[in-house]
Amino acid sequence: KKISDILQKSAPKPGVPADLQNLLSQHFAGNRSVIEIEELKLSDSCFLPANDLSHSFSSYLKEICPKWAKLRRNHKEKKSLVMLVICSSALRSLELIKSMTAFKGDCRVLKLFAKHIKIKEQMNMLEKGVFHIGVGTPGRVKALVEQDGLCLSSTKYMILDWNWRDQKLRRMMDIPEIKKETIDLLEMSIIKLCREGSVKLGLF
After folding, report:
1. What is the rounded distance in angstroms from the CA atom of residue 126 to the CA atom of residue 79?
2. Mean pLDDT over residues 163-176, rounded?
3. Residue (of 35, 1, 41, 9) closest to 186 by Cα position
4. Alpha-carbon torsion 38, 181, 146, 87, what sign?
5. DSSP 3-state assignment of 68?
6. Whole-angstrom Cα distance, residue 9 to residue 64?
7. Which residue, 35, 55, 61, 168, has fewest beta-carbon neighbours within 10 Å?
8. What is the pTM (predicted TM-score) of this model?
């Protein structure tokens, strides 16, 4: 059965933290020890309230981050972002950036995808200016972190564009390449930061 056939018949259910936990456990089940998998577990306190599908992106961000104006004002560090938004494509990143208008205020948003934008350009921008929100694909964000172009020490929120479906009705975690890159990014540094309490994860 095609995934789109199944999805057409079922009502969309909003993602919850347990969905991400199960995904990580399944992904690593074959090649990690029980102890290693245990280290990838996140407590419920690591998560922001999930989107119940009634929110626009702006209203969701306002709910999870009521003190945004203060966070934005206090953020002065280059090469870093307060909020990272991870989605499945460049096109979807642009859609999300457009739909944040009511939330973002005076903050600067950086596009973090590979389409038409060289990684060196993004690294230069991060090095020279202060940006508050980055919206992009997991592969490019991971590459920026690996190449030391993006530092996650100031990051407070990481939002996964979890519930949105493309024309084939696939969510970002239904696309093998995006799923793998997202899990790699989480494992590389985000899970550790969540467990230390500095980053909160949101499923939009």
Report:
1. 4
2. 92
3. 41
4. negative
5. helix
6. 31
7. 35
8. 0.93
Pick the CATH number of 13-203 from 3.30.1360.120, 3.40.50.300, 3.90.1150.10, 3.40.190.10: 3.40.50.300
Domain boundaries, the chain: 13-203
Q: What is the mean pLDDT of residues 169-198?
A: 95
Q: Confidence band (pLDDT; 50, 70, 90) for 8?
A: low
Whose CA is closest to 180, among 146, 143, 139? Answer: 139
Share of the chain above pLDDT 70, in %: 94
- In whole angstroms, give the CA distance from residue 154 to residue 137: 19
Where residue 13 falls (left for φ over 0; alpha for ψ -120 to 50; beta otherwise) is beta
Q: What are the phi and psi torsion angles at 85 (to 5°)?
A: -115, 125
